[in-house]
Amino acid sequence: MVKLVMVRHGESIANALNQYTGWNNVGLTQEGIVQAHVAAEKLKGMSFDHVHTSVLKRAIITAYIIQDELNLNYVPITKTWRLNERHYGALRGINKDETRREYGVEQVHQWRRSFYSIPPQLEQPDPNVGPYKYFDARIMPVAESLYQAYQRIIPYYVDQVAPLLLDGKDQLIVAHGSTIRALIKYIENISDEDIDGIEVANGKPLIYELDNKLNIISSNRTE
Ligand SMILES: O=C(O)[C@@H](CO)OP(=O)(O)O
């Protein structure tokens, strides 16, 4: 039996303002910092052989808090753009209620939760500086559906996480709402339609116990 734990970052400043975030690089609120500590408390006694996170600081700070609380600061951590939140395109930074008023509740639900809906795109991709300076500019997105994000998230899981799990090494992923929804879809084999109803709370660890073929033995996701 091996453990895979996934944690969505604590509340971010954009979450508190009810803004679309995506690749905006915002920090945690005080409440978000508390949520990261609470997540760590729930994981007390566990150990991980590797930590995986995005290049966005809300996830990185949450991962560091958890590592620190568990005295696992020495554990290797990989920060990858592949675990970034889904890119929200031209919606990022906009208040979600404003878009409900402008485009209607159903359209906003589609943008937020359907597997294939692509939010309005940026006119051009962001410059690849800061966390993206090691990144090929040709793959900077202008907006992503969950399906498009899934195409870059799952190869990371298959190449970098699953082999360590198959080797009996417990893994921690600290990421984002949509990143974790994509991973849940893959790990639990959830249909394109049913992924619409799955929400991931800030700072609530999802703990999967997997067998030696990575089939699920137990999970707390629906508790
Ligand atoms: O804004 C975002 O990037 C995400 C997660 O916070 O929001 P939503 O739940 O609306 O997809």
From TrEMBL:
Q: Which family does it belong to?
A: Belongs to the phosphoglycerate mutase family. BPG-dependent PGAM subfamily.
| SUPFAM superfamilies the record matches | Phosphoglycerate mutase-like
| HAMAP family named among the record's database cross-references | PGAM_GpmA
Protein name in the entry: 2,3-bisphosphoglycerate-dependent phosphoglycerate mutase
- Note the superkingdom of the native organism: Bacteria
Q: Where is the active site?
A: 9, 85
Q: Cytoplasm: present as a keyword of the record?
A: no
Q: Note whether Isomerase occurs among the keywords.
A: yes
Extent of the signal sequence: none
EC number assigned by the record: 5.4.2.11
> Which lineage ranks, top first, belong to the organism behind this chain?
Bacteria, Bacillati, Bacillota, Bacilli, Lactobacillales
Biological process (GO) annotations held by this record are: gluconeogenesis; glycolytic process
GO molecular function of the protein, one example?
phosphoglycerate mutase activity
Q: Which UniProt keywords apply?
A: Gluconeogenesis, Glycolysis, Isomerase
Q: Where is this site: Transition state stabilizer?
A: 176
General function of this protein: Catalyzes the interconversion of 2-phosphoglycerate and 3-phosphoglycerate.
Q: Which Pfam families match?
A: His_Phos_1 (PF00300)
